[in-house]
Amino acid sequence: MHRLNRRQLLLATASLAVAPVRAQHADAPRFVLVLLRGGLDGLSAVPVPGDPAFAEARGPLANFDAFDAPPRPLDGPFALHPLLPQLHALHGKGELLVVHATGLPYRERSHFDAQNVLEHGGTRPHELASGWLARALPHMAGGRAVALDTAVPLVLRGAAGVDTWAPSPLPEPDTDLVNRLAALWQADPALATALARARGLREDPAMAGAMTAPMPASMAAGPGPARRPVVGLAARAAEFVQRGATVAVLDMPGWDSHANQGAPNGATSNNLRTLDATLEALRSGLQAGGTWDRTVVVVATEFGREVAVNGTLGTDHGTGGAAFVLGGAVRGGRVLADWPGLARAQRFEGRDLRVTTDLRAVFRTVMAEHLRVPRAALDAQVMPGSGGLAMLPLLKA
Fold first, then answer.
1. pTM of the model as a whole
2. Residue-averaged pLDDT of the chain
């Protein structure tokens, strides 16, 4: 189904392409990937006020006086943005780890190419046609995945056992329509199989609630982060995971921040509020379902931003940034960083936070040590060319 986007859309229109079947391994580890598309400014989300060059390098973006609270302290020179209180609470509980000065081998500044590398797991744009998570899926216990979207993202493209779910305003199809679709599609093996699979899932009492329940009214629409659709999708992702999905993928677009980045009610600030609420909804749902303790969530973006503010009080495309690793299986309460410094001479090309930790090492560690993907498969198939990267101390023993 993942190879046929047009046909997938037809199934979605019929409200039939939905959730994964229950994994055979109910106690298997779980993984949620949250992709922040547009380039999160890691120095905004995780400022470094203890760096002696921070205030001068960031200019007005080093000033948080317009917010209700100062930056929330982490260990060492690091802090969290004032608008990330739930993440800060997780850090205090030892369930959040920040990886700073991280990024991809890709060093150019195209959103499209950087997202392509982020999702296929190689080193160059369009080097691989499938996604690293899709290639890892067959090696995982349970091996089922769901994307909370209308189409399968590249990171999951290329594997069997991948489904999509997104809320639909359309009414439920009646039996006559479904039967007509079955007759129309019976000569097409891909469509016939997808329809039969969807019908089977809807008849599975263990999955029916997650597939057909309406979005919570408080999360479906309206102003404020708690009412943005991605928060509701996070709550639904938690349901799918606790019902048996091994992997879930969430997308959060809109992180490009070329202008007015420090405005307390601007796009970046609102995105940070929404991210905090989204991750709290995910944690709360997983905790209630008893799966948080064996879950790892990674929040990653395609690149960071330039260190210095631009002429419109924003930041332009850069390289190094920050990632978040959270969950009950995470050895958190720390910032993992080989900190390069923010003075101009310490920056990449004199502009960007220098990448000192390859983001692929984060993914490799989670796949090897949490999801138990064999390292030989990681090196040869899942992330070819990354075998020289060391495992990182991300997880509880």
1. 0.87
2. 88
